[in-house]
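Run CENPP protein through structure prediction, thanks.
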Amino acid sequence: MDIGMCQVYEDEIKSLEEEIKLLAEQYKDIQQESTFYSEEEILMAIKAFQSEFQGESKGHESQSDLKAQLESLEADLCFLMKFTCIQFTSHSKRTIERNGNRTVQKHRVSGKCHSLSFQLEFQLLEIKDKEKVSTVITHLSIIMESGEDLNVSKFVSRIEEHGDLLTFFRSLSSYAEWCEHRRSTFQHFKVVSIKLLSI
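Sure, done. The structure for CENPP protein is below.
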């Protein structure tokens, strides 16, 4: 058999092994997720889901109302992304603890604001107390492409310490906008200086 063919088969085998490993990890996550629910909770959720889509339960919104709501939310999200220039490229969520009235979920979010990329990882602690639900962000970790800017590093550390995502996104939007202005200004002067040098 040709050595080149052997290499192709070996590469294909490696690729399949990696895919199997990834699927096994996803399966493990799904299994872990499902173990946090009791059989009774799963059956109740299935019944609620079936009754909602078969129209057995009264007081639920119709499918067309839900579709209109979804379209409205998508339009709002599109407006916010244009307004803030923050675009989310990926999001993953995994429940890591469920205990009575307490739930902990791990979130991973990545995105861009103008030309700046960012990644967030945090845990969301949700506590249900009778009629009230309170949420707290913990274990916040932010990765940003800010170069060697010491002020940005200090700011990110402070945000991570306080778990203040709202302030992060507000500041990110302003900072990225000024970075974009600065980049275009430097680009303009670079073009002008090249033209002057060529005279």
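The chain has five helices and four strands.
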